[in-house]
Design brief:
Chain lengths: 289, 262, 364
């Protein structure tokens, strides 16, 4: 949507609500958690998650992280599934417009803070930008070991055998690893982390990224971080290394053969078409063409 | 300790006692275990033998006494003074634990291959092809057909599951294996085969073992030394053949005489 | 020609209008007032306050109106509001022994000091729909003044304590502050104050099911209702400037003490053990369920074998909060097409290789 239309429908900054909704003591508490997370890349820091006006499971962790770091001069972009215009992204963006009055944008290069659900923007990020991920399940081993008491020990003792058993099983049964999103990564050679349900296609973008990457899980009450220029490796075996997805098609709107493509069903005969998931990236390419 | 022999025992147990509430389930037990030696702990159910095994395997904290293990480069260390990290590492590398019920010692919902390779992956091995080869090698050594490598243990017979459990434990070449009634619940013929295999493996690998059993035949077949327990106390210890052929303590005599002679 | 989907902003604004219409319903029907909800849907208000963790009947009634009667949604509204409120201080522990009783029963004793006071309860009604309620304008039932009961109403647990039959509930050594899980995240194993707080805020349906499971063999306890009491208690604070206790008002609460099978160890003779439940307003089902689950969760502390879900701290406490459970379940409505795209692609690939002759790595 063109920026001026966004502005017309935008909610007005509500003076009754504290800047970015959270009270200052809560922001301080969350910032302390963020600092600790940045100091220990990939480690899940527990924090006193607050009830937010959006439900748990809908991005409250990401929202609390953004609310704790956002200032009046920041420029905010919010995306969901790569698009600025999905209803969830719109809802969160409106929340911040209402509680902060900051300038919002759809342009990845113009944003100082990008809050995202399930994708990393195609346009490479720069130093000084912050990418805030919404995380539903921060614990990468939760499906294998639901008890937090036990997974805490496994992380502390670097006992990650269980994760590799899982990958081994995939290779044994399918001939390749079956995780296609939320693909676990090893951060700074120490902690195994869930990158959130981004497609594995996006995993390589996390490695040595100039931007600060913050991860917020509100319902599970954890914050973690990948500082700029940190090593992030996707798990795999030496003889079956990690691989990204590839499409045979290109984007029908802009022609890109490098971006993540969404499949759109065109008619009830099942005719399909592929378009870029990242709406800003696609739009810019179309204009340039 | 033998003054003439500088080799320390692999494990030293001193005055070990375990209590549940006021009840003393294990009372003042001491023994040494030497590298490559198999010790059988024999007694009826309720004698405290399983609690003793768990206490020396760091799975149940004793109420009194010491358990020390000879770490590879550090000599005898009290296992209860180690950090939890060290104990867990020990349990994954230098020790093995074979449970009576194989399902307790295996991941039933992953393949045999994954079960066997898990310890290697935990130690950092990351080459799938090599891991798989080693898994196949070990399945063969415990006489499981390599074609079963991708099958899950819940499709295996009881005897196969036990053999899988053994492979899973031995793949890191541990120096000490704890076994809790490893053959009970299995058919007599299956038991015999399993015991034979275990005897071969312990000899080949110079494995020390502590085997808890109520079955004297298991002790006879596997163990060089034997400790007889009654009501938490060690009533008789000695070389297996000597104890079984010439029991001194009345309780041991009772046990021996109640076994049907072939 | 395909145009990428746009207009999320407009769609949301339109949905707000539709929601407002749905909430109001037929404009010819008189609008529901918050006062009416507060007075005549009192038990809904009590539940929303209890799980919303705020004693304020007016706000709870407002939340119910705003959510068109969806109580889980109303609880969410109240909690979100609570998160914005500054913490002014802490009250003294409520003195439920000094409660002005409206209802008080004990299943463990036939009679006891203070008597069995039935009070207002649905327990002994027959559940037949009363069609006379379809009409309004019926004369309100005459207010009856309950006979003034000057008899002291000590708590049953205090009576049992005279003979030391019931385990004492003494503060932990040093009398530490209770854990506050609205400020810090819980880590397991959690202490009892964290558990009780979690249960007090827990979804009533979930808690009820867990409690029920303890009665059907999924746990060890054999419970009796030692006492249920409902009435008003004073809320007291000790302001710094004054240095002594003052009452800032009173609130109605429901308290339940469950008495369970006796324990005993080598150092202690057998005694009955306890489970505790407390809720705002008149909420017996909630208080009872809470007491049963509280007792079940004490399994570790009392040396019982943990075999049932209701005894597992992590299971109960991680799934008891309706905001968390409702949020995460309903989040599945959010777009997941990127993840789904990945799965689609994988399944297609797997189907292709399924059709081909097998290679070394695939299972036989």
């Amino acid at each position: 949507m063109p920026l001026n239309e966004l502005v017309e429908l935008a909610p007005v900054r509500d003076p009754q609500i504290n800047f970015a909704y959270l009270d200052e003591r809560t922001k301080r508490m969350i910032r302390r958690a963020i600092l600790k997370a940045v100091a220990i890349p990939g480690y899940q820091v527990p924090f006193g998650s607050r009830e937010m006006p959006l439900p748990y499971g809908w991005g409250t962790g990401g929202i609390q992280v953004t609310a704790s770091i956002i200032g009046p001069s920041d420029v905010l972009k919010v995306i969901d599934q790569g698009s600025d215009d999905t209803v969830n992204a719109v809802n969160i963006r409106r929340f911040f417009q209402r509680t902060t009055g900051v300038v919002v944008t759809t342009d990845t290069t113009a944003a100082s803070i990008i809050q995202t659900r399930h994708r990393i923007p195609e346009t490479p990020l720069q130093e000084g930008q912050v990418l805030v991920y919404q995380v539903p399940v921060p614990e990468p081993m939760q499906r294998l070991e639901p008890r937090e008491e036990e997974t805490r020990k496994l992380h502390a003792l670097q006992e990650y055998g269980l994760m590799h058993v899982n990958l081994f099983e995939d290779l044994a049964h399918y001939g390749h690893i079956s995780s296609t999103y939320d693909y676990p990564v090893l951060v700074n050679g120490r902690y195994i982390m869930s990158p959130s349900p981004i497609p594995k296609f996006d995993n390589p973008k996390m490695h040595q990224n100039p931007a600060l990457q913050l991860f917020g899980a509100g319902r599970e009450k954890r914050i973690y971080a990948v500082p700029p220029y940190t090593n992030v490796e996707s798990l795999g075996f030496e003889d079956h290394p990690f691989e990204v997805q590839r499409w045979q098609a290109v984007c029908e709107l802009c022609g890109s053969n490098e971006s993540f493509l969404d499949e759109v069903i065109m008619d009830d005969q099942g005719k399909k078409m592929f378009v870029c998931s990242d709406s800003d990236y696609c739009g810019k390419r179309q204009v340039a063409a | 300790m033998n003054d003439l022999d500088a080799t320390p025992p692999l494990m030293r147990v001193q005055s070990l006692s375990c209590a549940y509430g006021k009840r003393n389930v294990v009372r003042d037990i001491s023994f040494d275990l030497w590298p490559g030696e198999v010790l059988a702990i024999v007694g009826e159910s309720g004698s405290g033998k399983t609690t003793l095994l768990n206490a020396v395997a760091a799975r149940h904290t004793p109420s009194a006494g010491h358990v020390s293990f000879d770490l590879r480069h550090q000599g005898l260390q009290n296992i209860y003074e180690m950090s939890e990290a060290q104990r867990r590492m020990l349990a994954r590398t230098d020790w093995g634990f074979v449970h009576q019920n194989a399902a307790d010692g295996l991941r039933m919902n992953v393949s045999a291959g994954a079960n066997v390779s898990e310890r290697l992956m935990a130690l950092g091995q990351r080459h799938y092809g090599q891991l798989r080869e080693q898994a196949i090698d070990w399945l063969e050594r415990v006489e499981i057909s390599p074609t079963r490598i991708d099958d899950r243990p819940n499709t295996f017979s009881g005897g196969m599951r036990q053999r899988l459990q053994i492979a899973r434990n031995l793949i890191t070449q541990p120096r000490l294996v704890f076994m809790d009634e490893p053959t009970s619940g299995l058919d007599v013929s299956v038991q015999a085969k399993l015991l034979d295999m275990m005897r071969t493996l312990t000899r080949q690998m110079n494995l020390a073992a502590i085997v808890v059993t109520h079955d004297l035949a298991v002790a006879r077949l596997l163990a060089q030394r034997m400790l007889v327990m009654q009501n938490g106390e060690a009533v008789e210890t000695g070389l297996t053949d000597q104890v079984l052929d010439d029991p001194q303590h009345p309780y041991t005599q009772l046990l021996v005489s109640s076994v049907l002679q072939p | 020609m395909y145009v990428a989907v746009k207009g999320g902003e407009t769609a949301i604004l339109n949905s707000y209008e539709l929601l407002a219409q749905q909430r109001r319903g037929d404009p010819n029907v008189p609008e529901l007032s918050v006062a009416q909800i507060r007075q005549q849907l009192r038990l809904s208000v009590d539940r929303v306050m209890t799980e919303g963790s705020v004693y304020d009947p007016q706000l709870a009634a407002l939340a119910i109106k705003q959510s068109a009667g969806d109580l889980v949604e109303a609880i969410f509204l109240l909690r979100a509001y609570r998160a914005t409120l500054p913490r002014l201080g802490y009250t003294q522990p409520l003195n439920t022994a000094g409660m002005h009783i409206a209802r008080r029963i004990s299943a463990a004793f036939k009679d006891l000091p203070g008597g069995q006071v039935l009070g207002p309860t649905y327990d002994y009604t027959q559940r037949l729909l009363d069609f006379s309620l379809l009409a309004t304008g019926k004369a309100a039932p005459e207010a009856r003044t309950a006979p003034v009961n000057n008899e002291p109403t000590p708590r049953v647990v205090d009576l049992l304590n005279h003979e030391s039959l019931l385990e004492g509930q003494l503060p932990e050594e040093g009398d530490p502050d209770p854990f506050d899980l609205t400020r810090q995240p819980v880590r397991f194993p959690a202490n009892r104050s964290a558990r009780l707080q979690n249960l007090a805020r827990a979804d009533e349906g979930f808690l009820l099911a867990m409690a029920y499971s303890t009665q059907r063999g999924y746990s060890e306890s054999h419970p009796f209702v030692g006492e249920i009491r409902f009435g008003t208690v004073d809320v007291c604070i000790v302001p710094e400037e004054l240095g002594f206790e003052i009452s800032v008002g009173d609130i109605p609460v429901t308290e339940c003490q469950m008495i369970n099978q006796f324990q005993g160890s080598q150092t202690q003779p057998p005694q009955f053990t306890r489970g505790y439940g407390l809720a705002f307003g008149h909420s017996e089902r909630k208080a009872m369920a809470m007491a049963l689950v509280d007792r079940a969760l004490r399994a570790d502390e009392l040396g019982e074998t943990v075999t049932a879900p209701a005894q597992m701290q992590e299971f109960v406490m991680s799934h008891s909060d309706s905001l968390e459970s409702s949020g995460f379940v309903q989040h599945l409505k959010l777009p997941h097409y990127v993840d789904f795209q990945s799965e689609l692609e994988l399944v297609r690939k797997m189907r292709q290789s399924h059709a081909l002759p097998k290679d070394d790595h695939a299972s036989e």
